[in-house]
Q: What sequence folds into this?
């Protein structure tokens, strides 16, 4: 991709996952310095080491569901890496469940990460940094937030959370355009990541809605996220 981010600071959440790490690598190759956010300090250290050959990168441990810790994490990134120009939110939980058997704690866990945490991360990035100089935010919704999909490709709590991401993205785009902040969302139909490979295989009919009848690769999604 012939897109350059020289002198820009990007933040990627869910940065140790198959999609997040690929996005971070693509941003680094395009000239950005990248702050990696993820819940696991060990995986962050490993990912930081792997990506350091491509440019300046640093990991910041954060559970995005812990909304009380978000502001401090964003402030630390600004102090150490400068004002934030790009935020790409790949953090998310996909849990397969039958809607008739879904428990409230399972619902809360997925919603807390995928929707509540996502909103408060972008709120703090805009409040602390982008409100003053503009920027671009890319969130991850899903086709599951737009139409019903068979488990294990989706479930009630996952679909609800990704529908919320779509709505939050549209609202944020309207509210924050005045600051020069663009907010967009991607809605993949399925990406072949290590996490997906661990789930039970979906029924053959789950591929009916995908014309190519195959899942996309992390690099396909990363290219589109970086373009936005």
A:
């Amino acid at each position: 991709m012939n897109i350059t981010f020289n002198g820009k600071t990007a933040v990627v959440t869910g940065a140790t996952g198959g999609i997040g790490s690929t996005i971070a690598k693509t941003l680094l190759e395009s000239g950005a310095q990248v702050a990696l956010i993820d819940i696991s300090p060990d995986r962050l250290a490993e990912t930081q080491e792997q990506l350091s050959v491509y440019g300046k990168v640093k990991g910041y441990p954060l559970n995005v569901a812990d909304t009380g810790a978000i502001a401090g994490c964003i402030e630390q990134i600004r102090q150490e890496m400068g004002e934030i120009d790009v935020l790409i939110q790949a953090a998310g939980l996909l849990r397969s469940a039958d809607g008739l058997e879904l428990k409230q704690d399972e619902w809360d866990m997925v919603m807390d990460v995928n929707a509540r945490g996502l909103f408060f991360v972008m709120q703090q990035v805009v409040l602390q940094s982008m409100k003053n100089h503009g920027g671009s935010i890319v969130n991850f919704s899903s086709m599951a937030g737009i139409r019903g999909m068979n488990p294990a490709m989706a479930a009630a709590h996952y679909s609800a959370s990704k529908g919320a991401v779509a709505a939050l993205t549209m609202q944020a785009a309207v509210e924050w355009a005045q600051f020069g902040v663009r907010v967009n969302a991607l809605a993949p139909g399925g990406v072949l990541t290590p996490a997906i490979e661990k789930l039970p295989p979906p029924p053959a009919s789950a591929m009916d809605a995908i014309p190519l009848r195959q899942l996309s690769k992390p690099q396909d999604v990363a290219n589109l996220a970086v373009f936005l």
User: Anything to note?
Assistant: The chain has seven helices and six strands.
